[in-house]
Amino acid sequence: MPYQKPHKRIITKEHLDDFLSSLAYDEYINYILRLNDAVKNTKISADVAVSKNVSDILNVLQTLTSWVDEIPPLENSKSRFGNPAFRDFYDKVENSFGELFQGIIPEAAMEEVSVYFVESFGNRRRIDYGTGHEANFMAWLLCLEKLGVLTKEDDQGVVLRIFVSYIALMRKLQFEYWLEPAGSHGVWGLDDYHFLPFLFGSSQLYDHKYIRPKSIHDEEVVNEFSKDYMYLACIHFINTVKTTASLRWHSPMLDDISACKVWTKVNQGMIKMYKAEVLSKLPIMQHFMFGSLIHFEGGTDQATHLHDDCGHVHAGPTPIAGDTTDNNDNVFALGQEYPDCCGIPVPSAIAAAGLKNREKGAPRPIPFD
Q1: Rounded distance, CA 255 to CA 179, Å?
Q2: 290 has which bridge partners?
Q3: Does residue 15 sit in the same domain as residue 101?
Q4: pLDDT digits (tens, 9 = 90+) for 50-100
Q5: pLDDT at position 367, please?
Q6: Which of 281, 303, 330 is the endpoint of a domain?
Q7: Which of 257, 281, 305 is the last residue of a domain?
């Protein structure tokens, strides 16, 4: 099959059900599970194999990190919402993809895989980011494996080098451009933006003799070990941004999870939760795209935008009998789950913290320093 630019194919719950029983779903989730297994009981600082292609990808991510410094946020001291300078960063990534990955990714596949990579940094129009964008990054990595750019032997390097670098870059984007959480509930109390660092991070701690799930409440443990374990790095991030109360108040789900006795239970729960709360949610998966490398023949190839102010695909190109509309003139296929973020801008908690820091004359905080 020739390479093809990825398109959205999921509009209705029926389409989503088809996807959940498809080869595309199996390939994606099995890739996540394989990466999860690869980093069990392994620190970020561990001496893992780094192939030339992994190293080259890391260099690209470092280049993108430098671009954030070159594209400063526009001054708008009163706004707690996304900064328009993010669009300049997004456009530069999109326009430079071929140059960035020349000699790494086969020329013929550039257009197909570039879509996943660019979408993994957030939504250009809404200046927001969520677990769907994170899933695009994993889809991009899966495509690279199918192209032979990455292999199974790279799995530890993919998670502990490439994915960790991607998360660090995303944290910088979130801090600098105040990306809004994609959806009014963020990621159900785990983190306003990410899910997979908790999944992979719990695998890293799988059989740890001393650090327990309840250790997330110990500030010294979190600060000391956040550079080695993604799960604790996420807690450190949350503590940096949401400083006015304890985890019990602003992150009740994380607080509940900390009651588990062992990390094995946490990791198993994270896998189930990822399947249920990310891959099985229509407002997220209606944005997922399919081409030749991640191929899905279900759904419809007519998944074009009718009204896209909120970034959601609400219906096909023509009205469907029985459609309903909301006050924003968004059209939803009958029976479709109503995306609760439509028309509801979600201010960034980072922005709120940033405004406080500005008032105190403090610099913008940079995570994972």
Answers
A1: 25
A2: 7
A3: yes
A4: 999 999 999 999 999 999 999 999 986 556 678 999 999 999 999 999 999
A5: 31
A6: 281
A7: 281
Helix axes 85-100, 164-177, angle to 10 degrees: 150
Q: What pLDDT digit, counting tens, does each position of 131-162 carry? A: 999 999 999 999 999 999 999 999 999 999 99
Q: How large is the average pLDDT for residues 267-277?
A: 95
Overall domain count for the chain: 2
Question: 20 with 146, same domain?
Answer: yes
The model's pLDDT over 239-256, given as tens digits with 9 standing for 90+, comes to 887 755 566 666 778 888
Residues 13 and 98 in one domain: yes
Same domain, 213 and 331: no
Residue ranges making up the domain that contains 218: 196-281
- Other C-beta atoms lying within 10 Å of the C-beta of residue 168: 18
* Mean pLDDT within 115-120: 98
Q: What CATH number has the domain bearing residue 232?
A: 1.20.120.1150
- Are residues 70 and 98 both part of a single domain? yes
186 and 208 co-located in one domain: no
- Per residue, the 3-state secondary structure of the chain, as one string, reads CCCCCCEECCCCHHHHHHHHCCHHHHHHHHHHHHHHHHCCCCCCCCCCCCCHHHHHHHHHHHHHHHHHHHCCCCCCCCCCCCCCHHHHHHHHHHHHHHHHCCCCCCHHHHHHHHHHHHHCCCECCCCEECHHHHHHHHHHHHHHHHCCCCCHHHHHHHHHHHHHHHHHHHHHHHHHHCCEECCCCCCCCCCCCCCHHHHHHHHHCCCCCCCCHHHHHCHHHHHHHCCCCHHHHHHHHHHHHCCCCCHHHHCHHHHHHCCCCCHHHHHHHHHHHHHHHCCCCHHHHCCCEECCCCCCCCCCCCCCCCCCCCCCCCCCCCCCCCCEECCCCCEECCCCCCCCCCCCCCCCHHHHHHHHHHHCCCCCCCCCC
